[in-house]
Amino acid sequence: MDVSYDVIVIGAGPSGSTAARFAAEGGCKVLLVERKRDIGIPVRCAEGVSEPPLKEFIDSHPSFIRNRISEIRLFAPNDIAVVLTPVNSGYILDRRVFDRELARLAIVNGAEVATSCAAIGIKRLDNGTVDVKVLHRGSETTVNCKIIIAADGVESRVGRWFGVKTVTTLHNTEGALTYVLSHPEIDNRYCDFYFGTEVAPGGYLWVFPGGDHSASVGIGCAGDCLRGKSLHEFLDRFIQRKYGGAKILSEVAGGIPVQATLKEIIADNLMLVGDAARQVNPMTGAGIINGMIAGKIAGITASESIKMRSWKKDDFRDYPKEWHQRIGSNHEKYFKMKEVVNKFSDESLNQIAETINSLPESKRTLRKVFMTALIKHPLLLGELRHLF
Ligand SMILES: Cc1cc2nc3c(=O)[nH]c(=O)nc-3n(C[C@H](O)[C@H](O)[C@H](O)COP(=O)(O)OP(=O)(O)OC[C@H]3O[C@@H](n4cnc5c(N)ncnc54)[C@H](O)[C@@H]3O)c2cc1C
Question: Is 295 in the pocket of ligand 1 (CB under 6 A)?
Fold first, then answer.
């Protein structure tokens, strides 16, 4: 590790590695620091991504793709399944390999990577640069830079060091728990989503098959909807019912920020990306691709700023602008839709499923599900009118 860099990226998840890659490709001297010893481990994710947007970043490779899925089933509270007409196919990744591959691409483009290296504080200097204090393999040291890209995930502290308001309410933080389990009944063809107050209040439960009759079976619920019960209770009850006797191979828990993007994702010397900037899709909780898109824009913005020899907040304005044009303003809509959808009763969800199933198979799309929901609940039209 050198003593000074143009850009230090904190956190080597998908957002950070992508930011480091594009900043380095733009000619910056980049250091990517990751507090864990092994990038991508442990996996705190169900590993599902949509196939088309991934192509912008990486060619799909069997080493990090466990399964390819083209069909989705939505299960109403009474267990009626709606099989959606496929629009895009998706992948179930192996993030242990995928995250490492993204970091490798950053290295190939010229970034340096330091693992077992936690950023533990910053100090702004009078010359407009920043000293980052890191704990690297047990020893404290200081590294200087002009720009920090904070990609330190949902528990991000870096933003707060710069005075950015990153607090998320309990309601907008989904607690998520997922098991990887093995069971002969797991259907390798479908990604399944289960809804209802008895299954996953204020969220949903998923089964993402890995292709070998194993699956990530998990649950994400708004923090204030659990009524004193734990995620384990909901998930264990579901597994008992659907996959009795399943062998659990691993268990991970984490938080998912399900809100619109933070109001401020830039400051002097700083850009926030990925979960740290709350760039997860608030309807689905998916954040891998969004974080990579944000990382790319931030990395390019950083390289432009370095070329212009200025790294004030105003020099980074293109980043939030482009982010909102591509994704962020849609997330504001999805956030409001999530709030409305969470008000549906179990009975309404059952009725919607029945109506969709009465349509010809080719018309059973996600869009149709929403339109049917709105027709059944005309009052919601009032709440959603201003979104469209
Ligand atoms: C149970 C669960 C299931 C999920 N399933 C999906 C899914 O199927 N599909 C999907 O798209 N999304 C899913 N998500 C969300 C997805 O995991 C995140 O949105 C995604 O990982 C965000 O990437 P990131 O790079 O912003 O942050 P992260 O992947 O969290 O990476 C942040 C990195 O920063 C490092 N770090 C933190 N602080 C420091 C520090 N001070 N110094 C150095 N390093 C630091 C961390 O160790 C970590 O490696 C799920 C989340 C959970 C919890």
Answer: no
